[in-house]
Amino acid sequence: MKRHVALIIETSSSYGRDLLAGIVRFMRMHDEWSVFLEQRDLRKKPPAWLRKWNGDGIISRATTPDLVKAIATTGVPLVELTDRGEDLGLLQVRSDDHAIGRIAAEHLLERGFQKFGFCGFTGEAWSKRRQDGFVEALGAAGFDCDIYNSPWHGPSVRSWEDVQSKLTKWLKQFPRPFAVMTCNDMRGQHVLDACSNAELAVPEEVAVIGVDNDDLLCRICAPPLSSVIPNAEAVGFRAADLLSQVMNGNNITESSQVISPIGIATRQSTDVVAIDDPEIAAALQFIRENACRGISVDEVTQNASISRSTLERQLRKYLGRTPQEEIRHVQVGRIQELLLTTDLSIERISTLCGFEHPEYMHVVFKRLTQITPGEFRRQSQA
């Protein structure tokens, strides 16, 4: 007999829809649930039907203290996906927000930026964790970060014109070039609009990166917004797996679990290298655009009209890597993206990333990541 499970998850955001996709994938693999989907706003009161609902389990993205009280009276097990506020002491799965902030910082550092800002929402725990991860990663690299936060919801929210006026003033105070991480793609759109108001060129004067990789929203932005890709589908899958274990009587020792992000979807808003030396900037851009053709260092120096010794010296200065290491760095990043987001064979990925022989790709990948491509794909799927 199938178990009755309620899903209290919003479908208005790409993140919520990806959570549902992960839950559906679990359901298709196990075929043991009958599901009721309650589509609701994240801030609504608990549904009235919940107090009398005779079900077996709940996965909720709209968990509030009132909802916890309502569910407690039923005795039904709950896995929560909420990441907005305090820890409610429930079994929880969420994205690794610190890691999201960290890889956004790494992405911008790789482009040579030395001035940084973070733009988020006050009172949102997920935004604060992403801010902390971003600031900590920059601090470890020896850089400071200026913070701008304002309310997202509630009575203290100002008019759009007032918010954009303050955001524009904040952006104008940065020495150029600089880079800004925003807590999500919606906030990224706010920053890009303010950059337009401030007559700041993106990405030449300011690079902007968001979070969630909401493809439609990112492409509506002008220019298209780069974004960190959280693994929301894996969050949903893991939540479904945990709920299944609890309903089967298993004891879960780790009450809060986090899922690492996939990587970066690079679009025009960060497609730049913030280096004062135009020859070095051109060399890095050439590497970024052509590494997966299997280029050599000689091709890079010929394209940038620069000596090999100068290129070696300047890349060590700016990035801490040799030109060959930078080529491999770009190739491995692309390999990771294809392993995570496609079902392509290792052989096909090897060809797409500029390696003539898959065996050599294995060697390079393991040297840089300490695991094989196959192990990387299996771990990400797990």
Automatic annotation (TrEMBL):
Residues of the HTH araC/xylS-type domain: 281-379
Key words of the record: DNA-binding, Transcription, Transcription regulation
Transmembrane segments: none
Entries under SUPFAM superfamilies matching the protein: Homeodomain-like, Periplasmic binding protein-like I
Database matches in Pfam families: HTH_18, PBP1_XylR, Peripla_BP_3
Single GO molecular function: transcription cis-regulatory region binding
PROSITE patterns: HTH_ARAC_FAMILY_2
Domain of life: Bacteria
Protein name: Xylose operon regulatory protein
Organism, scientific name: Gimesia alba
Organism lineage string: Bacteria, Pseudomonadati, Planctomycetota, Planctomycetia, Planctomycetales
